Every structure is written in C-alpha cells, then in structure tokens.
C-alpha cells in the first residue's frame, strides 16, 4: 500500500484506490516549504478579516500548520476525528472520481505544490489549494455534509464523450502552465484547445452542469450578502491574489441559485463574477433542486438517451427496482416513451445495488435487451399482478406464451421461472426457446440461449456507473500525462541549501549559520530571488539587527525595480513581518 490507511479510507472501493499515490513528503524542498509558509501567513492575516469564521477554526481543528506543509498521515489522524480523511493524487483526476471520493468523506489532495513563480495562483491543483483551502472548511458540520452529499449526487451525473476530452485538455494545460520550462507557444496552443472545446461542447451534460455548481460553491463560493460577503470557496481561500481581488467592486456579486449551473468558468482566468449563498443550508437546497432535474430522479426516455450519448457504463432502474448496468446503445420508443432498451457488451442485473445471483457480466457478456411498459390490452402492469392475476394471464412456469407489449414488442417462448424482489413483485421472467421481435425485426433468437426479460412499466432512474460496484472491473485508469517535476540544477540545489539554512536557524535546529553570509550569496548569485531575503529580513527584525534589515530592504528595492511584478509580494511579506513584531 502506497499510503497509510485508516477506518475511513478502508471503506473506499478498489476502483478509487487506483488514483491514490504516495505523498513522498521528503520530496518537498526548502523553497516549497517557504512558499507554503509565505502563502499561509499572508492568507491567515488577510482571511481572518474576509473568510467565513469556519476557516480559522478549521485550521486548528484539522491540524494544518502555517509553518510546514501538512503531512497527509498527520492530517488523517486529526481529520478522522471529524469523520473525514485525505489522500494524495497526481493533479486533476476525472470529475466523477473526484466527486465519488467526496461521497466517502475523503478529500482528494494534489500533493504537488506550486512553484515560487506561481505563488499567487496556479491553474493546477496543489496542496495549498486542497490542504489549506478545502480541509479547514470541512470542520463545519453543515458544510461537510453538503460536500459529502454533493459527491454522492455528482458521481451519478451522466457525462458526455466531450466532457472527458475537455478534462484531458484542462489537465494538460494545468500541467504545462505550472511546469517551470514550458514553452509559451505550447501553453498558448493548449489554451486555444481548451477554449475551442469549451465553445463546441454542444448541449451541456449533467456532469458539465453540476461541475459548474461545484465551481461556484466549493471552489469559488462566497457566503453572506452581496453587500458583505465572506469567503468559503477553496479556490479563493488558497489564492493570495484572487482572495483580495474578489472583494473589490470589479468582481460582480450575484445571489446564488440553480442558475449558476448554466454559468461556465475559465480556470486560467480570475473570475469576473461570483455567487453568494446566504448560508450553508441553502447550498444543500439548491443541490437537491438540481438533483431533481437529473436522470437519476427523472429516468424516462431522456435518461436512457443521456446514457446512450455518454457511450459509457451506466445504469437504468425500472419501477420494480431492477437495475440494468452496461453500455446502452439503443432504445426503441412508442409515443415518446421507451418500449425496448438495449446494451452492448458486458451487462449486469442488480436489485438495490446488489447484483442478482446468476446475472453477472459473465452471464450477460454480449449485452442485454428487454421490453419496457405494459402489455397490450391489459391495463394492469406485470409488476402489479398478484399470483392469481399472473395465472389468469398464463404468465407462470411451464407455459408457452406470447406477450405483446404496447410498444409493439413481442416476446414468444416457454416460461422457466420468475425472479421476485423483496416486495414479492416479479422483476425478471426467464424464457427458453424464445423469440423477441418488433414487426419484422428480430431482437432475440432461440439459439442465443435463455432469454431474461426485465419486468418494469417505467424507467424511474438513469445514472452514471454500475449499480453494484463489484459487477465490473473498474480498474481502468491510466494517466496519459504526469505532472512535470522541476529540473534540479546545481544552482537550484545551492539556492535550496540557503533556504534550508535559514529555515533551520529560524526553527533553532542550527543557529551557527551566518545570516549575513547567506544574504551576500543570495545577493550576488541569485539577484532575482525575493522570498529568501524577506525571510532574512524577518530574522534581522526579530533579532533587532536594524542595520542588517536596512541592507536587505535596499536590496529588495533593487529586486522590485528589476521585476515590478513581484513588488507587491515583497511589500506584503515585509508588512507581515513588521505587523507580527508589533506587540
């Protein structure tokens, strides 16, 4: 096992564990640690004024330190006390898997950390975003339940083929934008590809719509009133640039509603508008409102068509509770309702998320087809027939019979047996020597073996994935592109060593180093680096070495002149130091 488990992680299904990777804490460099410390110090200082009260409380409850990148093992030890856990992954994972982790009360944390050059914002998920953004807020019980429920509903949302293509394109863009040596032309090409895909998605899928809701709440949500909002979205909590910008009048504040599902977003740009929920309870209200529009709850012909369009493994549930899981490829209709449904390839039958004995993918390896609806001329649906009714209509073992459905489907064969659900309703009738037709079209031949006819007047639900997770081999994930680790040069290694010395001095593990010597080396050999001089300024001020502090400030003024883009970062860092020393 590549990670330390606990009782929450033990409950994860095997197919989710394929995304988990070891955190490899020892791979974090002294510069990584300095980036974490700078962002967290700045965040806590600023967010104490503008974040929801749960944020600062949550930092304490989840054991997230300002001084050190969190160790996943330590986080899990504390998170499990509030019923959650965290796992490390490699960058973006498919949206349905991300949401399914949430359904199991597990935070997915991209264990990489942004480079110093992207300290304010990165389009790539990283441990600052996930660990310092998502984790603290889940200490709020009402929000934590919203997150879990969102995952539970979201992982059932049906995707389109284009959704996965967009996911791969966004993942690629996030990887190369965070990589230190990426070619600008390559980045522009990747951005153009994402933009083209976004503009040609067609009718948005359920997954696309619910992903929008996730973005405008979990990632970029505000809470309170449009006149006085507070931050709770992880994307804002972890971005020292956007958390400040979002509070200005340049960002439009809208009241949150289900309409947010139809507002798309661009991960590469600051958001031009944000949505404000009055409280966490309202988030759940909108989520349930959206779920009512999903095929998960509406079923019907529309639900089957969504599954066919997705070209992916999905499930329909009939009014008897019988669940058919497979790749749906065809549906015949009658007066706007499904009259016959068909899967291709491996299919499994279940009841209440548990596979029926004798109806695994081994038994239905070539697909499954069945009529839906009532019998012609009989107002009583088969599932509503009592044993006496079934006898009256000759639907019982040993009878050779022709069943003609309202939609024109005919099933002719000898009944062997019937399978009932817990209520005693017939959910499946098995025939031998069976022929299934619609007019002149043959849908099933006797030589194909036994015919298992699903019983159900209606399709009440259609959703992504299998009913029983054990029915299919879901270990299919293969990473097409891994996140790019920064190249280590001799100069970078020496700079890392200087950061390490300063860190050890501050922590008291090595107080023999000459801070002046470190400063001179940075000044002479790494004139563009600004973060280490800021840390040295902190040490100088805390030791009342005013001359040294002045010398550092003079150097940082030169850095600002040569690179104005980092000027506000330097100023903010110095201000934090001065503020922390005021008694």
Automatic annotation (TrEMBL):
PROSITE patterns: BH4_AAA_HYDROXYL_2. It comes from Cellulophaga lytica (strain ATCC 23178 / DSM 7489 / JCM 8516 / NBRC 14961 / NCIMB 1423 / VKM B-1433 / Cy l20). Residues 1-342 form the Biopterin-dependent aromatic amino acid hydroxylase family profile domain. Transmembrane segments: none annotated. Keywords: Coiled coil, Iron, Metal-binding, Monooxygenase, Oxidoreductase. Its cofactor is Fe(2+). InterPro entries: ArAA_hydroxylase, ArAA_hydroxylase_sf, Aro-AA_hydroxylase_C_sf, Aromatic-AA_hydroxylase_C. CDD domains: arom_aa_hydroxylase. Fe cation binds at residues 129, 134, 219. Its EC number is 1.14.16.1. Signal peptide: none annotated. Belongs to the biopterin-dependent aromatic amino acid hydroxylase family. Residues 173-200 form a coiled coil. It comes from the Bacteria. It is an enzyme of class 1 (oxidoreductase). GO terms for molecular function: iron ion binding; phenylalanine 4-monooxygenase activity. This is Phenylalanine 4-monooxygenase.
């Amino acid at each position: 096992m590549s990670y330390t488990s606990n009782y929450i992680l033990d409950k994860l299904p095997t197919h989710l564990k394929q995304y988990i990777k070891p955190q490899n804490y020892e791979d974090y460099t002294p510069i990584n640690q300095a980036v974490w410390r700078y962002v967290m110090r700045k965040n806590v200082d600023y967010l104490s004024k503008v974040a929801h009260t749960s944020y600062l409380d949550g930092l304490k409850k989840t054991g997230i330190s300002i001084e050190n990148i969190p160790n996943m093992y330590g986080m899990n030890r504390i998170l499990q006390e509030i019923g959650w856990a965290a796992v490390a992954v490699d960058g973006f994972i498919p949206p349905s898997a991300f949401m399914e982790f949430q359904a199991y009360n597990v935070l997915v944390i991209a264990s990489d950390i942004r480079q110093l050059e992207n300290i304010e914002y990165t389009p790539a998920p990283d441990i600052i975003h996930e660990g310092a953004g998502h984790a603290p807020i889940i200490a709020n019980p009402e929000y934590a339940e919203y997150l879990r429920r969102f995952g539970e509903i979201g992982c059932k949302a049906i995707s389109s083929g284009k959704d996965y293509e967009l996911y791969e394109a966004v993942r690629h863009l996030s990887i190369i934008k965070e990589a230190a040596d990426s070619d600008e032309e390559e980045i522009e090409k990747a951005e153009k590809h994402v933009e083209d895909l976004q503009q040609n998605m067609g009718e948005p899928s359920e997954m696309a719509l619910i992903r929008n809701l996730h973005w405008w709440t979990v990632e970029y949500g505000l809470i309170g009133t449009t006149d006085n909002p507070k931050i709770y979205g992880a994307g804002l909590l972890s971005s020292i640039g956007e958390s400040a910008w979002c509070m200005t009048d340049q960002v439009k504040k809208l009241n949150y509603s289900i309409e947010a599902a139809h507002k798309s977003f661009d991960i590469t740009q600051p958001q031009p508008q944000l949505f404000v929920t009055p409280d966490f309870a309202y988030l759940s209200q909108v989520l349930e409102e959206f779920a009512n529009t999903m095929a998960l709850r509406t079923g019907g012909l529309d639900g089957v068509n969504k599954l066919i369009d997705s070209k992916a493994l999905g499930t329909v549930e009939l009014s008897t509770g019988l669940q058919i899981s497979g790749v749906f490829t065809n549906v015949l209709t009658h007066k706007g309702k499904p009259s016959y449904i068909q899967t291709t390839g491996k299919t499994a039958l279940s009841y209440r998320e548990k596979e029926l004995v004798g109806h695994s993918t081994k038994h239905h390896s070539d697909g499954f087809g069945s009529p839906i609806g009532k019998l012609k001329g009989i107002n009583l649906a088969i599932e509503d027939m009592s044993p006496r009714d079934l006898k009256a209509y000759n639907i019982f073992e040993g009878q050779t019979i022709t069943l003609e459905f309202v939609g024109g489907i005919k099933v002719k064969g000898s009944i062997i047996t019937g399978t009932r659900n817990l209520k005693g309703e017939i959910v499946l009738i098995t025939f031998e020597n069976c022929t299934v037709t619609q007019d002149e079209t043959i849908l099933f031949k006797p030589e194909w073996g036994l015919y298992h006819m699903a019983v159900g007047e209606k399709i009440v639900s259609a959703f992504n994935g299998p009913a029983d997770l054990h029915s299919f081999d879901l270990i299919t994930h293969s990473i097409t592109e891994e996140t790019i680790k920064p190249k280590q040069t001799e100069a970078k290694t020496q700079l890392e060593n200087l950061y390490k010395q300063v860190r050890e001095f501050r922590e008291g593990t090595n107080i023999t180093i000459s801070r002046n010597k470190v400063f001179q080396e940075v000044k002479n050999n790494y004139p563009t680096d600004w973060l280490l001089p800021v840390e040295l300024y902190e040490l100088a001020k805390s030791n009342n070495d005013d001359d040294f502090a002045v010398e550092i400030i003079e150097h940082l003024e030169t850095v600002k002149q040569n690179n104005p883009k980092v000027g506000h970062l330097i100023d903010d860092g110095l201000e934090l130091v001065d503020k922390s020393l005021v008694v």
